[in-house]
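Residues determine shape. Take a concrete instance:
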Amino acid sequence: MVATLGGQPQVVTLALDALLDRGYPIRELIVVHLSTHNPRYHAALAQLAQAFASGTYRDQPLRYRPYAVAQGSTVIGDIHSEAATDTVLNTFNQLLQQLKQQGRVVHLCISGGRRMLGLLGLAAALIYFDYSDRIWHLYSTDTVRAQTHEGAMLHLPPGTAGVQLLAVPVRPWGNLFSALHLPADASLQTVMNLQGAALDATLHTRCQQVYERLTPRRRDVLRALAAGLTPQEVANQLSIELSTVNSHQGAIYQECQAVWDIEPGRRLDYRWLRETFNRFFTR
């Protein structure tokens, strides 16, 4: 489990308790934090270090590892500039890349600390996570927050109302790019460039599959829509009725839904075709 931390250590332990209650086998807790020059962060880390000092948790082995956001040897104190943002993102890049190269399943809780800390953790997770990994947000009521404020309580009795661990419903890119062989020290920009190229190749393949299934006239309609024309403009250019264009669009949508495995009922329109197929026709 990887968790972001500010001055509220109970966010970490309550999320961990919830994961263990659901049967997830957590064997390591990595807490990502800013500089302990902030007294609240220092106190929160000290409280967690004490809670995990024995190397066990709920009678099971569990390694506790604080992980500072640092540029070189300097731990940053806040996220107040683009340079600090880059440092946080690179920290998550290094950590998550290492964990996934080790074949680890990662649970990321983004509720602790600065909001930007969690958002940047989420951004990195979308790049590296696959469908075995999970991203979580800890919800708690005002009453629970008051009871547990700044570690006054690290745990709640079983069945306590007002606290819930919620899965963040995202589709990570890592599952699409699992075949990429990255150097152990690959920078975030290198990873994003490689994944962008792989994504372009995947998109081109899917567009090609749709294109090959279409009749010559439907290909003409798709090419015109991809070029930025509206359905009425396509009708005018091809000298056909608007209803005919709409009929061809419907057939194109059906092929797209099959190739992209789009859930039934999702509405597609000509703008989606333009954004999806424009580069296919212009590259």
